[in-house]
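Aim 2 progress. For BREX system P-loop protein BrxC, the working sequence is reproduced below.
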Amino acid sequence: MKIAKTFARPIDRPINGVIKADQQDAESVWQELDEYVVTRELDRHFRAFVSAFLNASDNPGNPEIWGRIGVWVSGFFGSGKSHFIKILAYLLSNQVAEKAGVHRNAVDFFDPSVVNPKIHDAMFFGDLKRAVAVDTDVILFNIDSKSDTSKKDPILRAFMNVLNERLGYSPNQPEIADLERQLDMKGKFEAFNDIYRDLTGDEWVEQRDAFFLNADSIKTALAKTLGQSEQSYDAWIDDPDRVFNLSPETFAERVKSYLDQRGPKHRIIFLVDEIGQFIGQDGQMMVRLQTIVENLGTVCKGRAWVVVTSQEDIDAVLGQMTTSRENDFSKIQGRFKTRLSLSSANVDEVIQSRLLSKTQDATKVLKPIYEKNADILKNQLAFTNIGTTFKSYADSDYFAAIYPFAPYQFPLLQKIFEAIRKYGATGMHLARGERSMLDAFQVAAVAAGKKDIGALVPLHDFYPAIESFLDTAVKATIVGADDNPSLKPLDGSVLKAMFLIRYVEEMRGTLDNVVTLFVDQIDMDRLALRARIEESLQRLESQTLLRRNGEEFFFLTDEEREIARDIKNVDLLAADDAKAIAGLIYGEVLADNRNFRYAESKKDFQYTRLCDLHPYGTRVDGDLVVLVVTPIADDYGDWNEARCILKSGENDGQVIVKLSEDKLLARELREYLQTEKFITRKNDDGLAPRTKAILKDRADENRMRKARLVTLLGSMFSNAEFFAAGKAVNSKGEKPSIRLENALTYLVKNTFPKLGYLQHLAAEPQKEIRAVLLAPDTQEPTLGLNGTHANAIVLKEVADFVRLMGDANRRVILNDLAQDKFSKRPYGWPEWQTVLLVARLLVAGEVSLIQNAVAMSRETAAEALQSVQQWRNIIVVKRQTVDAAMLQQARNLAKDVFGQMGPDGEDALDAFIREQSQQWTIKLTGYKALAETGNFPGATAINECISFLRRLVANTDSYALIQFFVSGKDEARGFADRSADIDNFYTNQRPVWDRLRQKTTEFQVNQHEIDKSEPAKAALNRMQMILAHPGPYPLIKEVAGLTSAVQVVNDAALGSRRAHVLGRVDTFISEVTTALGQVEATSELKHASLAPLRSLRSSIEVDPSIPSILQAARIAEDLKDDALEAIEKFAKAKQPAVPNGPAPPPIFRKPRVVRIIDLKKTPGFLNSREDVDRFLADLKAVCDDALAANEPIDLR
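Predicted structure tokens for this construct:
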């Protein structure tokens, strides 16, 4: 039986697989209603819609229902949502369908009483008939075909246009339609049409969209129709948009006006297809749609409905938009309370029912075939490593229902359609939904119809269903493959299948999966098919029609193919492969580890890393060498076992890792490097977006390729052959790092002969170093190097090396000792263990440690040895010792110098001298700071003492220090004498010195008076001499007597001068007080006049300076003059003015100051009576003048 004969209806009949809103011919309407399948899912959606619609019809006065007039129908591409709303339109308008003279109302196709009914519930059918009976206008339209995105507010204009079209007005120009509406309301529309026809000879309906070309005729027709001047229409003709205001509220008012004209129970429903795709991610459009629905609900009070379709549900559409308008979006969701979502199950059921339903005879034939071949089919149609699970045939009934198709094809084809549209491999027709799942399955079924039962539909049979809608570039690629002489017929089919799954993430294009997609017979020989497909894939890859990424193959577009060819043509240098594979092995597989820790000694070894004899990374001349030999090496075949054993024994031994062969390695590595190099070169911001996207995909794939290479090399490493120290090594372990560690362990054991000398390893060497160095002498016996210590042999090795280097006058740096000499062959000792040995030798007195030219104490060494950075600054030397005689001399000298006998023992005495020197240095440095101020003596002596101490402790070890101390005993004793005087001065004599400085300063102010007494003068000079003496320490005892002698003379002179001046100041105060009384001065004037004088008197009483007191006398005179002048001003201001007659004498007159010195005309003395007479005459003249002015006279 042919497959075509199994179907209940002719498989090649026209089925109108694509539903269009404006396709309304009789044949299409009948077929759409007759073959419409109400699936279980659609049954729920019809019930939901009818319930909401009837609820609004039954409760017209409920405001809450008015806001629920929006219906959102969602579903993926080809899910049947366009068909669903078109059936709603047929039902609500109760459209009559006609075929061969038979007429049926749309609702009759849903009658449950007919054969094979669409619905089975009679009660629901009753509700459906009630909904159909509601007087309803139905307006079904595709938003994209009715809108003009170049205009403002395209959604609102589309709604307005379809309403105008229903009312007979202009369907394209809302402004013209508004003019027609106004003429209609005035009853002038027909008259206008007639006048326009008379003027132009054309029908208005045919010319209205070109109104700008007929502006004069329109103005004339309007003027004649309405009886106005033509000029009154100029504004409207020039800018109709300005005159006509289109808004959601205006539109809702238009709808309400129409409904009111038709009666209170009349309804209108707008069914809008593909609104979601039209809006996209434009939040403004979405808000506009919400406003339209909201206004229709409130203005029309539930009588106007809006049903829209979208490929995504409303929450998903809103989720793609910005969240800055969350309040608006919550309103939008509220406007579409009824939400209906069509799933893939709905599509599967429609295809099975409408297209694939079988005859009873066919079912009887097909079911046994499945029962016989169920296990075979399960294996034939199996997929591996895919991102989803495709179901298989559930049972024989399901097999018969969908035959000749496989279960995986229903969800896969849906994903293919979505992916092709998403990634732009098609023209706009498919992108706008002009191909459906139903159509694709019919095309494939028709192709299979000529085959016998037992055949299955391979995936590539779906390709013709979309071929005519593909972009030219894609079609050219596939057509070109058919004409390519290097390819075979099968290759074209493989290429088609690879294109179909190109953008489907859930289907990986591996060889086994492609084989499954090509199974076209139930009993197909899968192994033979696999071989044919594999050869085909290789041919297509060689022609750059496919590219390979690991196990997957991918279809290439023209641009991708061009880039793939460019990648293949990238030249690689000879060293590129070696460098890259070394980086993958050492950098990735072995985690870039260049250190190996030998477990027994916990010693870290650095190893040199080689790959195919090329060094990797920074060259490290480590004690160990690892060489990895890979299959990409030119001489890989020469690395047989004998050569590997020989090479592993050279250069003190090395590890050789020979990787196993793998045919994928070279190809994957080359493609990885070529892709990496190409992408790096092409990294240019100026590239086209599509090119950037392709390069990004190649970069992502190359990262995956790198990951595969790392995994592959890791597996090869785990299965590699290992050789070390001239032998084949059975390095166990699964992980590459463990296998390498085992081989390195073997190498170390067999190439470091003195590693075993280290019998005892400290568990925590850093802590033990500190413990050894800080332990009391009684707890750390001499190590003796006589075999009593656990590590006696290694201690002797270190001590002998230090001695030999010293004998050769060569310095031994601790860092070199630990990290070079005893870290490398033949020792291989851990660095910290070596430093611990040095610490033990230091305690045993075998070596000394020198840092910054100073021998380190055990305490200092305990800290410094903890820092690896400080090892470079520490020198290890063989220690010299002091003999007993010199040691005793030093102890005795220490008693003379430091006041106590030095301890017995070289180290103890060395530490004692250094400690005493440090204490004295600190003390003398403090004295030095005081002396350098110039106020204290001894600066030179202090510097000499400090210099001696510094030269003493500059000797780096105990031997040198004690020798310097003893040989310079005279200088040491001189230091003792000087330091004792200095210390006694600053400890005991300093208060006396401070009094000396203070009194000397005080007496020097009055020295002119003191020098009149010879004993006092001599005593003051002696005090000044002591202050200037560099070593005044024995003279300090004279200070008390000297200061007392000077003090007596100073006090007498000061008292005499102070008494005289105070008498004059008291006279001044008395004169000012008298004047204040005469003028009856205010308290403020009294205070201002007397306070300065009294304050000056107080300062004189305590002033120790005679010159300062004499100066105060002159200041007192000035203060008295200032006070008298102020009193005179006060008196003048107080005396009343007399209008007529002579003025009364003033209350007070300031005395006129007459200075005797000013009257002398010639310098020198008065030598004769004539000089005296002349002076007296001048004085009399001045006095007479003052008295004539009624001024008192103050002679000075």
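The first helix runs from residue 26 to 34. This observation will guide construct design in the next reporting period.
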